[in-house]
């Protein structure tokens, strides 16, 4: 299977004070399949924003390889990087990043490569899909937090991206609204889009197919073994069940043997004790 996005041994360094570089990402391996929802967690300053920037072609790795849909996009010109990002990647931000002077439908249509007429129609269709068909001409100031985030998601999907990157998508939302937004992510994921969300919200982790942890630039669980797909897992589980069955049978046999030996030894011991306690007859004394 071709991954939607993949990092191979990616390291990202920034200039630091005293001539020592700051390592934001350290030999990171990371891959996400089409239709997979991955949550990235970790403490502040662990490199999560840098990871999103590298995945989103906003920043280049210092070392390693970056692939988008199986194509190496590690070293691109600014124009090539912009074109690839516009075609294949959508962004959703914690603070929505909607332009206050544009309506909802205009904000959604903003990044599109379509002509103005087609862009507006597609933007309207997306907003209607997200339950905002009656809010097309509303400015951001007239929308709730959840509605603004839906507009932001629609904008991220306007160019049919293969990858959706979200930075704390529920950070400014209450629990109920956050669940509604994550349900939209579920729908997007079901359509084959790879969704990657950086988060501190346990609710996002609950919705994700996989949770990976980034600490001091080191990513844990970034790549899943392709051999352990659903069928592979079932095969492993079956083998583990067979081993467990054999272990149980062997343990039961051993316990029966031990019990038999213990019973025999106990009977012998009881006979010895009984004989020791049996009264001695005069003939035996002689």
From TrEMBL:
One of its GO terms (molecular function) is ATP hydrolysis activity. Residues 222-286 are annotated as: Disordered. Coiled coil: none annotated. Residues 5-241 form the ABC transporter domain. The keyword Iron-sulfur does not apply. Transmembrane segments: none annotated. Residues 225-286 have a biased composition (Basic and acidic residues). GO terms for cellular component: membrane protein complex; plasma membrane. The keyword Transport applies. Pfam families: ABC_tran. Keywords: ATP-binding, Nucleotide-binding, Transport. This is ABC transporter. It comes from Halorubrum aidingense JCM 13560.
